[in-house]
Design brief:
With 527 residues, this protein is an alpha/beta fold. The protein has 19 helices and 15 strands.
Length: 527
């Protein structure tokens, strides 16, 4: 191909020269088309980074063009409505339709294969409840005996997404939407920005291993810095992030191109440097110290609800935390269970694909442990991980959740098209970027209402499902309400798949066999 290119280039230039000589100088305009290709091909042959381009000058570039176009072409022209990843087109369309208040019904029956392994459904009742008589805005009260400022929050809230990962306009729209809809907005571990505060929506302040917004010059936790932000009236709850589903055990990543001077000032780091949150917390190093640190945060915030977020890994470590809670008689107000299927930004593929328990497994385990240890009454559970629809809410509550958080659905309500550019600063919809030329496309006045619309319609669909199940209170949902096909001719309930524990069984000597090893390994003074 190199020889063909060289020969072709020489012949093309000679032909243009001959045409210009015999037919007029006007033919030289062809050089505007040919000369750039010739120069491009020469560069391709002498560069050493790309073998295909070096061997196939100019033509080899098509491989990279097609690679770039592949996700876009696949999404719009190849994939079916049910096989899109990570979120299929049916769910995406539902989110868009609800955000825009368009018709969200579907014609001609389900496209799902109801006989395929993994298909799930909710059992309905012959005597459904009247939807119009049910509570259309169910809420839960967060705060136990150690809390002085309990918070009544919606059953569906905005999951953790940092300013820096998301654009200023996206943060503003999410918070303004939360204000309109009466739900909470989790800040993510990137700190509290002016865009979180501008519109007055309720905030759950998340603190990660980098202690952004409450760190000293050495990157260690600062009591004074924490208290300054924690006492803001918009901050309703404090969430300590132990790990997240997208990359548990890895720490957060803010690419340098997204780390603008404004973000760096909020986080107290150097601008335009890639910021890696540490993989572990420096403020505590054992289950006992974790529980004491939770109490410290609650005291410093004047008694605001305080909890922690984690993706379940070693079960013995969570059991150790439960043991520490009981010994100290200190309990977080809530625990957020994140699933390995979660994630909105940058994560190494090995961590994103192969580390951490999926949300359903982690949620069932946490609820079982808190129940088995007899401390469930003290702690609310929030589920996070691909919560998109009313059915996803039903399933999470059936497994033990008290509320749910959603991230990617809220991004889609803002206009996210699943371009899979979150980690490049080139998000075409202005959601996950710090490039002003891209974020200008996201108009806060319009998108804030779409976020509120999506929230309201999804909660409404959840309440309708409750009525169809013959239930008037979501707290009455159980694992027996959800069925899953495990083989073509075998169906089990979630109770069969994730058996519940009797209250107090982990403390009275009736530990199920499947937990005995983890219980024996659990300690409160080491992980």
């Amino acid at each position: 191909m190199r020889k063909i290119f060289i020969l072709g280039s020489i012949l093309a230039l000679l032909l243009i020269t001959v045409l210009a000589y015999f037919l007029g100088i006007g033919w030289l305009w062809l050089l505007l088309l040919v000369l750039p290709l010739v120069l491009m091909g020469i560069y391709d042959m002498i560069q050493v980074k790309h073998s295909i381009m070096r061997t196939y000058p100019v033509v080899g570039r098509m491989r990279f063009w097609m690679e770039d176009l592949r996700p876009k072409l696949y999404q719009y022209f190849v994939e079916s409505d049910i096989d899109g990843r990570p979120i299929n087109r049916i769910d995406r369309s539902t989110i868009y339709q609800r955000a825009k208040q368009q018709t969200d019904t579907m014609p001609f029956g389900t496209q799902l294969d109801v006989y395929a392994e993994g298909y799930e459904w909710m059992s309905h009742s012959i005597a459904p409840k009247d939807f119009h008589k049910l509570d259309h805005q169910p809420r839960m009260l967060v705060g136990n005996k150690g809390c002085k400022q309990p918070y009544s929050c919606s059953i569906l809230n905005v999951s953790a997404m940092s300013f820096g990962s998301l654009s200023p306009n996206a943060i503003e729209a999410l918070n303004a939407g939360a204000l309109i809809g009466g739900f909470a907005h989790n800040t993510g571990e990137g700190g509290i920005s002016p865009y979180h505060l501008k519109h007055g929506g309720d905030i759950i302040w998340q603190i990660g291993t980098g202690y952004f917004g409450c760190r000293d010059k050495d990157g260690l936790f600062s009591n004074e810095g924490f208290r300054e932000n924690a006492l803001l009236p918009q901050v309703k709850m404090i969430e300590l992030k132990i790990s997240q589903g997208a990359k548990p055990g890895h720490g957060g990543i803010l690419p340098g191109k997204k780390n603008t001077p404004e973000i760096a000032a909020i986080r107290h780091v150097e601008p335009y440097t890639t910021v890696y949150s540490p993989t572990y917390h420096s403020a505590f190093s054992t289950p006992r110290e974790l529980v004491l640190f939770i109490q410290r945060l609650r005291d410093l915030s004047d008694g605001k609800p305080t909890g922690f977020k984690l993706c379940i890994g070693r079960k013995s470590e969570f059991i150790g935390i439960c043991k520490a809670m009981i010994e100290l008689d200190i309990y977080p107000d809530f625990i957020t269970v994140d699933g390995a299927e979660g994630g909105t930004g940058a994560a190494p593929q090995e961590f994103s694909n192969y580390v951490g328990a999926p949300m359903l497994d982690g949620l069932a385990f946490v609820h079982n442990m808190l129940t088995g240890f007899g401390i469930r009454e003290h702690i609310k559970i929030i589920a996070s991980g691909k919560i998109l629809s009313g059915f996803h809410l039903v399933r999470a509550f059936a497994l033990g959740a008290d509320a749910c958080n959603s991230a990617r659905a809220m991004m889609m309500a803002l206009g996210c098209i699943q371009a899979l550019q979150c980690n490049t600063n080139k998000c075409p919809t202005g959601v996950a970027t710090q490039d002003p030329s891209l974020s200008v496309g996201l108009v806060v006045a319009d998108k804030k209402q779409r976020v509120a619309n999506y929230h309201a319609a999804t909660v409404s669909s959840f309440v309708e499902l409750l009525g169809a199940a013959g239930i008037d209170d979501y707290k009455k949902l159980t694992r027996s309400h959800i069925y899953r096909r495990v083989f073509m001719n075998e169906v089990r309930t979630l109770e069969d798949i994730f058996p519940s524990l009797q209250a107090g069984c982990m403390r009275n000597g009736h530990i199920p066999d499947r937990y005995q090893h983890d219980y024996a390994m659990a300690e409160i003074d080491r992980w």
